[in-house]
């Protein structure tokens, strides 16, 4: 029985990934606004209902990793090491993504294509702003829970806002340079230096906050 459940779940994951991959390919060729969900379904050889069984909205077809984007900072905070502050844990995770050129960093070559799709689509741009707000709000709630903050304590929200603003600024610079045609090898060294500077500045204000 466990093997059957595992097989079903694997097939569901594979189907979801195939639909997302097909949709992303169509969006890259034709543009997000010009491709319909019905066209995605036909290309993926599934029904429209099947598409919506896996993806709530058309935007979700492209932003299929949104749960990871929204929840990553909160998870890093919850899993921070003994003696490690909130900021130190998030710095470690962010720099590791840069060094490994993980998709979360926005550094890998080709990431600018997705960025252009988002910038060219009002609905995708609006969804990204919504996800950024959810990410910050979730981080603030996590900080409050982890540190046992009172409801009227402004620090969790203020700390979350500072950290998220810094990483958004870093991401904006990555996007600017990538869309200008600079490759990952060209920008990686200076990006790391900028990230170190950003976290150093945050360290002066919230460095010991939430030290475990």
UniProtKB/TrEMBL annotation:
The keyword Transcription applies. One of its GO terms (molecular function) is transcription cis-regulatory region binding. Residues 36-55 bind DNA. Keywords: DNA-binding, Transcription, Transcription regulation. The keyword Transcription applies. Residues 13-73 form the HTH tetR-type domain. This is TetR family transcriptional regulator. It comes from Sphaerisporangium rufum.
């Amino acid at each position: 029985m466990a093997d059957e459940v595992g097989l079903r779940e694997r097939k569901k994951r594979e189907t979801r990934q195939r639909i997302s991959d097909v949709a992303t390919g169509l969006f890259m060729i034709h543009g997000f606004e010009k491709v319909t969900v019905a066209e995605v379904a036909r290309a993926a050889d599934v029904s429209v209902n099947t598409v919506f069984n896996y993806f709530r909205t058309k935007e979700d077809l492209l932003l299929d990793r949104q749960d990871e984007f929204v929840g990553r900072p909160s998870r890093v905070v919850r899993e921070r090491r003994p003696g490690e502050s909130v900021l130190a844990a998030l710095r470690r995770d962010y720099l590791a993504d840069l060094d490994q050129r993980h998709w979360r960093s926005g550094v890998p070559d080709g990431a600018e294509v997705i960025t252009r799709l988002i910038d060219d689509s009002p609905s995708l741009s609006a969804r990204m702003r919504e996800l950024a707000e959810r990410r910050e709000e979730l981080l603030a709630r996590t900080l409050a829970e982890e540190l046992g903050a009172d409801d009227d304590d402004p620090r969790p929200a203020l700390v979350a806002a500072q950290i998220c603003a810094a990483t958004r600024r870093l991401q904006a610079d990555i996007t600017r340079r990538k869309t200008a045609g600079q490759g990952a090898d060209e920008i990686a060294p200076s990006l790391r230096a900028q990230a170190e500077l950003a976290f150093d500045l945050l360290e002066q204000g919230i460095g010991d906050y939430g030290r475990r």
